[in-house]
From TrEMBL:
Keywords: Glycosidase, Hydrolase, Metal-binding, Zinc. PANTHER family: BETA-GALACTOSIDASE GANA, BETA-GALACTOSIDASE YESZ. Transmembrane segments: none annotated. Belongs to the glycosyl hydrolase 42 family. This is beta-galactosidase. The keyword Metal-binding applies. Residues 226-281 form the Beta-galactosidase C-terminal domain. Residues 22-116 form the Glycoside hydrolase family 42 N-terminal domain. Residues 1-20 are annotated as: Disordered. Residues 117-217 form the Beta-galactosidase trimerisation domain.
């Protein structure tokens, strides 16, 4: 068990993923009292609950009753019990017991007013809920955007159920082919994007570059890798900060010549930054 508290917002996360033995101390015998009490206390105080499943930490009785559930490593060595993730996910026995505990949890708490869906408090903002989650491990799955471009998603895949949001990217393979992977939801005068997987720089560059152009947000195209540009505004004007976080010199090409605040005079359009160098320019 563990507590993690966010100092800024006073939020608390309670992690009970290793407590399955308390919920199901013996096969098919469930004891819900402690979890009932915990959820009831949070509900009374107006705290919403995202309820996960304890499937990654199977109890000893499951491993003793179903030896095929052990994760066998190289050399036919069983992975030690008590370590999170020591189960074999393609074991038929483990899958049956997983289905049982998940079904029992859903039946008991699925309609509880305190229990909410992922992505939690952001669900209404994003206009979407996560219907299912797929761990891709070393695999990748293709995602096609509404402009026809295709990108590779890695590590995980949130299978999305739009609730007001508009899908703009869809999975092209696996059992969830055709399901939403990326959505956009109109929210007030803006838009909330939900990106349901891990993507490479090509996707991020295309998505955010397109947003910058659509929203006409000032930016520097082709900024070198490892160089950061930011605009700071004060009472006397706006300033462009350029910072080189790399060990080699970098050149930033601007849309026009600007005046250097640090060194004085016209800095030109091509700004040469030494390793870990900084330049501050008059922006407006």
């Amino acid at each position: 068990m563990g507590d993690r508290r966010g100092a800024d917002e006073g939020s608390r996360r309670r992690d009970g993923q290793d407590r399955r033995i308390r919920v199901e101390p013996e096969e098919d015998r469930f004891e819900w009292g402690w979890l009932d009490d915990a959820i009831a206390v949070m509900h009374r105080h107006g705290i919403r609950v995202i309820l996960g499943t304890p499937t990654s930490a199977p109890p000893n009785w499951l491993m003793e009753n179903y030896p095929d559930a052990y994760l066998i490593e190289s050399g036919m060595q069983r992975r030690y019990e008590g370590i999170r993730g020591h189960r074999c996910v393609n074991s038929p026995s483990f899958r049956r017991r997983t289905e049982r505990i998940v079904t029992e949890l859903a039946a008991r708490y699925g309609a509880h007013p305190a229990v909410m869906e992922v992505p939690g408090p952001l669900a209404e903002c994003a206009g979407v809920v996560v219907e299912e989650w797929d761990a891709l491990s070393s695999d990748a799955v293709a995602v096609q955007m509404n402009n026809g471009n295709t990108y590779q998603a890695t590590q995980w895949a949130d299978i999305l159920e739009p609730r007001g949001a508009e899908p703009i990217g869809w999975y092209r393979s696996e059992y969830y082919a055709g399901k939403a992977a990326i959505t956009v939801n109109k929210l007030g005068s803006g838009n909330a994007y939900y990106i349901g997987a891990n993507f490479g720089p090509d996707f991020l560059s295309d998505l955010f570059g397109g947003l910058l152009r659509t929203l006409d947000i000032p930016h520097i195209p082709g900024l070198p890798e490892g160089v950061q540009a930011s605009v700071r505004r004060g009472g006397e004007g706006a300033y462009l900060f350029l910072t080189n976080f790399t060990t080699s010199a970098q050149t930033v090409v601007l849309d026009r010549a600007r005046e250097s605040v640090l060194y004085g005079g016209n800095a030109g359009e091509r700004i040469r930054l030494q390793p870990f160098g900084v330049e501050i320019l008059l922006y407006e």
